[in-house]
Specification:
The chain is built from 15 helices and 14 strands. With about 375 residues, it is of the alpha/beta class. Bound molecules: glyoxylic acid. The site of glyoxylic acid has 7 residues, from loops.
Length: about 375
Amino acid sequence: MGNSQAVRQRVLVPSSGVRIPLPQPNETYFSICAIFFKLYNDDIKYRPVSTLLSINQSLFMTQKKPVVFITRPIPQNGIAMLKKHFTVRLRKVNSPIPKKELEKEIQNCTALLTILTDKIDGKIMDLNPNLKVISNFAVGFDNIDISAASKRGIAVGNTPGVLTQSTAEHTLALILALMKRIVEGQKIMERNAFCGWGPLYMLGKELYKKTIGVVGFGRIGVRLAEIAYYGFGCNILYDNPSVNKKMEHAIHAKHVKLATLLKKADVVSLHVPLLPHTHHLIGKKELSLMKKTAYLINTARGAVVDEKALLSALKKGQIAGAGLDVFECEPSRTAGLEKLNNVVMVPHTGSAPVEAREGMAQVAAQNIIGILKKGAKPVSIVNA
Ligand code: GLV
């Protein structure tokens, strides 16, 4: 409060007439009020309906704000947006929510803000017939049973767009790390095993003018293709259910069958969602079609690749290397991958740049606001 503003002293005047100064409303004051308020309302729950009706209606009504439960801390910007409209219950623990806790919490909210490790099936949805929206803090939504949600009239939101650039850059980082043998080099330096420059030492590759095969030509796949084309003069092949005429014209991308892409590409990069038909899309047979000199990059979902088949192909030298951001059974990965020099692995950090995460928080919050507030619009509802 500014100095120029006069602060009116609050006093208590008991029958004795002695004026007792009361503290100014500050944090402690408000916390005490909050405790009384909670006690008062807890008390409300146990009163018979007839008594309830006589209780201050407006006070009771203010308690009716819809509750949003957030299963794990997310960037503050999203929380602040939600707090403007709803009662926000944030689980402050930075680890996946245990099933039992989720089963309890889901019963008391109108909206659930989930992260990609929260498995939400029909059974759990049935615990709360009043649940209106599940907003997933991710572009992927394979952790949620979408048809179960649709049957129950629950909207499911995701966060496309805001992590496109981050994930495309991340994919490029993995490609370059493999081609320039960055992680291998780092390990040599850490072991103090660098014995001097040599003409044939640690030979790598240029990305310049290589052929990139993009499997799944959605936002992220297209962005990667643009960066590779404009930045590195790459040829672009893509496999996708539909043809992208705009990109065929702009960057000369060629629509091909998966088998053709696998045979021709120097880098195969996966950008498909995990769906029943994309599970193990890349297995033993597909890996055997790839060039011995080619790299496989996965920044989509782990189970798009048969990880055991990949390990075997890498060990046999069937392909040159793999860059993996995602794994079949996260947080673990198939044992043996970590021993290979031609594998670069990172812990599912494709959307980890703060710009992307803040964007995801904003979109995830807006999806809830858009569903629950009249006149507001969600950004992306996958079962709209
Ligand atoms: C991250 O993997 C996401 O799906 O957003």
